[in-house]
Amino acid sequence: xxxxxxxxxxxxxxxxxxxxxxxxxxxxxxxxxxxxxxxxxxxxxxxxxxxxxxxxxxxxxxxxxxxxxxxxxxxxxxxxxxxxxxxxxxxxxxxxxxxxxxxxxxxxxxxxxxxxxxxxxxxxxxxxxxxxxxxxxxxxxxxxxxxxxxxxxxxxxxxxxxxxxxxxxxxxxxxxxxxxxxxxxxxxxxxxxxxxxxxxxxxxxxxxxxxxxxxxxxxxxxxxxxxxxxxxxxxxxxxxxxxxxxxxxxxxxxxxxxxxxxxxxxxxxxxxxxxxxxxxxxxxxxxxxxxxxxxxxxxxxxxxxxxxxxxxxxxxxxxxxxxxxxxxxxxxxxxxxxxxxxxxxxxxxxxxxxxxxxxxxxxxxxxxxxxxxxxxxxxxxxxxxxxxxxxxxxxxxxxxxxxxxxxxxxxxxxxxxxxxxxxxxxxxxxxxxxxxxxxxxxxxxxx
Length: 447
Ligand code: FHN
Known about the structure:
The protein is of the alpha/beta class. Helices cover 25% and strands 20% of the residues.
C-alpha cells in the first residue's frame, strides 16, 4: 500500500546512537509535575487511580489545577543527588517528564505561562537535571505529552471547522515547544512521546511524521518512540503495511512480551516501562492501595526484557519536596547492588535465541550466553538445550568459579548449580562455540 506518512525505514537502525540506546538496556523514568503536590488526594478524598491523572478523577477545573503552581517549591530538590541515585542503581539513561498531560513544564518555556519559571521555585529543573545526569555519564531522554489539558486549543477530536483551526494552532504551539527543548538541551538523546492516542492526532498523521523529521534534523542521531506516530489512515505504532514507525516500539507498558510465544519482537527494537506499584507513575501518598512489586520482581522484569532483546525503564515518582520516597530509594539500592555484580548479563546484551527453560532467562553478548537463574531446581541440575551446531565449552559464575557441565543428550547439557546458597537471582556465564561436529553417539528413537 502506498503511504505518505508510514514507516521512514524498514528494519532496525544500526547507527552508533541507536546502538547506544540499545546497549544501555536499563533506564529510569521520572514522572514529576504538579500532581506530586496533592499526591492522589483532592478535597480530603483519596483517589486510587494514577496520581498524575488526579485532575481527571476528581474533576478539577484547569484553572483550579494550575493554582498548584503557586505551591511548586521543591526545597529538597538536588539534581546531583538524583544523578547519584540513578548512577548507583546502574541505570544508563533517565526519561524525564518535561511536560505531562496537565501541561506544567519543568523548563521555562516561552510558549506558555504554566512553567517552573512562574512558580516560587523559579529555577529550570529540567536544565539542572540534564546537566547532573550528563555529568554522571547518564543519557537523558525527554518524555513529552502531546495531549495538554492546560491549552485551550487542545482537542481530543475534530468535529467542526473551529476545532480544526484550534488544533492547527495547537500543533504549531507543540512544534515550538519541541524546537525549544531540542535547542535548549542539545544533549538530549531521545524524545518519548505520550498522549497521542486521540482521534485528533490520528487524523493528523502528517504532523507526527513531520515532528519525527523535524527533531531528527535538529538533533541528528536522536531516537524517537513509536507512540508518536500515526500513518495516513490513523494507524499507530505500526503502519498500515505492518512496518514499525519511529525507532523502537513503546507499547509495552506495565506488560512484557510472552517469552515463549512472542519472539517476533526480536525483529525490531523495543522498550518497556513499568511502575513499582500496580499503576502509579506520579507520586501517590498511599501505596497500600495496590500491590507493590518487590525488588526481585522488578529485577525479573528487567532481565525478561533484555532476554527478549528489549530495554526496561523503571518508574520513579518523586515527592513534591524534591526527595524520593523511602521505598523507591531502597528499591534503587537493591537493584543497583545486583547490577554492580551482575550487570555484565544486562548491558549490551541481547536475545540469545535459545529455548527458554523454567529456571530463568538467557541473554547473550557475542560468544557468551548468560543464564540468569530465578528458580533454583531441587535436582541441582540446570537443564539447557542448545541450538544445532553449538557447544558449551565452559560454565562459570561471574566471579570466575567453574561449574560442572555435562552433555546429557544431543544438543542438551546440564550445568550443576553452584554450592553456595545465593539469596538472589544468580548468573552463570557460558562460553560457547559453533561446531559442525555432531556427536554420532546419539540415536534418534524409532517410533
Ligand atoms: O497516561 C500516561 C500515564 O500517566 C503515564 O505517563 C504512562 C507512562 O507510560 N503513559 C500514559 C499512559 O499510557
